[in-house]
Amino acid sequence: MRHLRGLSAALLVLVISAIAVAPGDAAPEGQMIWAVHTTLVPAWFDPAEIIQQTPFMVLSATHDALVKPMPGKSMAPGLAESWSASPDGLVYEFVLRKGVKFHNGEPVTAEDVKFSFERYRGIFAKTLKERVATVEILDPGRVRFRLKQPWPDFMTFYGTRASGAGWIVPKKYVEKVGDDGYKKAPIGAGPYRFVSFTPGVELVLEAFDQYWRKTPHVKRLVFRVIPDHATRLAALKRGDADIVYLISGELADEVRRTPGLALKTVFPSNHWLSFADQFDAKSPWHDKRVRLAANLALDRQTLNEAATLGLSKITGSIVPSSFDFYWPAPPYPYDPARARRLLAEAGYASGFDAGEFFCDLQVCSWGEAAVTHLKAVGIQLKLRPFERAALFKGIAEKRYRNVVYLFSGASGNAATWLEAFAVSGGTYVYGGYPDIDGLFREQAAELDRAKREMILHRMQQLIHERAMFAPIWDFAFLHGVGPRVEESGLGLLAGYGFSAPYEDVKLKGK
After folding, report:
1. Is 99 within the bounds of a domain?
2. Which domain holds residue 459?
3. Which of 110, 221, 325, 446 has the most CB atoms at less than 10 Å from its CB?
4. Residue 86 and residue 155 in one domain
5. pLDDT, average across residues 293-299
6. Residue 295 domain-assigned (yes or no)
7. Is residue 254 included in any domain, yes or no?
8. With left for phi above 0 and alpha for psi between -120 and 50, is residue 352 left, alpha or beta?
9. Does 488 lie in the same domain as 395?
10. Rounded distance, CA 280 to CA 391, Å?
C-alpha cells in the first residue's frame, strides 16, 4: 500500500502497481485455430452488453479493462496501472497507464472510462448504476468513482469478469459509428484487433503489436464455429484446429488416447436446475417436497461419468466452491424411491406434467439425461433447446418458466453470485424469499469480513434447506489441444474456462 501522487490525504491508499512486460522483439508469427462449441454473435463484440460469461472468449482478445484477472492474480492492473480506495469505502481512484492506445491509434483516456461505465447495460447494470453516485474525470489519466454508500464488492464487480463494466471502449469511435456499427467493426485496446466475422462460420483476429503488456506471439487467431462434438474432434485430429473447446464423454477419452493430442481440464462454471415457478403458489414447484424430489431423482454421478469422464465435481450448492464466502452444502443423494414418496405426500402420487425444460444446445445431452431421471419418478418434462444467447436473454426477460438448466462461469464471490441467481430482482431470478433478501441487504453494507461471511453462509444454508435449486456439478471443461501448440492459454487464469491471456498463447517453434 502506498499513497498515489495527487490523491487527497483523506484517501487510504490500496495500491496495486503493474509490473509491465516490455514488448518482445520477435514479431507475431503463424495462425492458431480454435474450434468453438457455440455460435458467436455480434453482441459478444461489445462489453456493454454482457449478460453471461461466454463472450469473454472473444472480449479477452479484442478488449482490455482497467483491472482484470491475470495469471496468478484474481485482480491485476490492466489499462489502469494502479488504483486506490478511501478509508470509508466511498471513493475509488484509478491512474491510467501512459501511452496505451486503442486499435485505431487513439489514446485510452479517463473520458473513455467514464463513457464505458455509463454506457454499460449488461447483467449488473442496475446494481452498479444504483450504487455509483458519480464518475469524475480528474485529468486525462485519472478517474474517480464515488459510491453512494460503502460497498465492499465494488471492485469485485468492476475489476473482474463478474460484469464487464470495467472493460473500456473508445468513446469517439462508438459515438461516430453507433452501437450497431460498433458490433460490425469493434475497436478495443486488447492484444488482438478485429479483422472479419462471418456469422455462423468464423471470427478472425490479428495481433496488435502495440499492446502494452507484450507483443503477442501468434499473428492471427481464428475462431471457427463447430457446434457438434464429433466434428470438433475430427477437426483436431485432422489438424484443421489447434484447440477444440468442450469435448465430452467418450470423445474426450479418445482425445486422451490419441498420440499427439492432449486433454486439458479446467473448472470454470457451476451448473444447476432452476425451478422458475417455485414462487407461484399455484405451481407444483411451490411445494418444497416437489423440489426436493427432483433433487433426489438426479443420478449426478452417472451424469458425471457420461459427460466428463467423472472429472466434474458433484456439488450441493449453486455457488462455485472456489469462491470467497462459499458454504459447502452437502450434495443431495440419489434416492428415487424417496423422491416418489415425497411426490405422493405432495399430492402427486401419479406424477405430474411439469411443462418444459429449457436448456442451452451444448448441454442438451445431459439435460436430456436429467429429464429422463425426473421422468422416472413421475416428473414429466419436454426438452426445449435454445442457442445460448437466446436462452440467457429469454431467462433474463423471464420468458422461460417451469425448469431451466442454468450455468455460469462468472468471476466474483458468493455475494455477487447470489445477487444474480437467488435474490429478488437479480438478472436470472423469478422471485425471492424475504428473509434471504433481507440477509443479502445486511451483508451488502457490512465491511467486517467475518460478519459478512456468517451472513452469506446463512443465506446459502437457507437456499439448501428449501431446495431452491437442483445443483448438479462444478463442471469440468474438457478441451482438446493439438500437437502444434506450445501454450494453449487454458488454465492460466484461475476459474476461467477458455484460453487467456491471448498474448501468451504460443505455437511450437514460434
Report:
1. yes
2. 267-475
3. 221
4. yes
5. 98
6. yes
7. no
8. beta
9. no
10. 22
**Number of domains present in the structure of the chain:** 2
Q: 414-421 and 449-465 are packed helices; what angle lies between their axes, rounded to 10 degrees? A: 40
Same domain, 442 and 496: no
Pairing of strands 202-207, 313-314: unpaired
Burial 37-46 (b: 16+ CB within 10 A, else e): bbbbbeebbb
Q: Are 143 and 135 in contact (CB under 8 A)?
A: yes
Give me the percent of the chain exceeding a pLDDT of 70: 95
Residue 391, C-alpha cell as written in the block = 436462452
| Residue 171 and residue 208 in one domain | yes
Q: Do β-strands 506-507 and 352-360 pair in parallel, antiparallel, or remain unpaired?
A: unpaired
- Rounded average pLDDT over 366-394: 93
Q: Are residues 349 and 404 in the same domain?
A: yes
Grid cell locating 124: 449488473
In the sheet where 142-147 sits, what is the strand order? 80-85, 91-96, 142-147, 132-139
Q: Which helix (H) or strand (E) holds 61?
A: helix 56-62
- Same domain as 287, residue 391: yes
Burial class of residue 150 (count of CB atoms within 10 Å of its CB; 0-12, 13-18, 19+): middle
- What residues pair up with 210 in beta bridges, in sequence order? none
Residue whose C-alpha is closest to residue 232's, from 507, 483, 480: 480
Whether residue 327 sits in one domain with residue 311: yes
Mean pLDDT score of the chain, rounded to an integer?
92
Please name the residue ranges forming H helices in 132-248: 154-158, 171-184, 229-238
Same domain, 200 and 309: no
Question: In this structure, is the dihedral angle defined by the CA atoms of residues 45, 51, 54 and 60, taken in order, positive or negative?
Answer: positive
User: Kindly report the CA angle at 200 between 508 and 202, in degrees rounded to 5?
Assistant: 25
Q: Which amino acid, 298? A: L
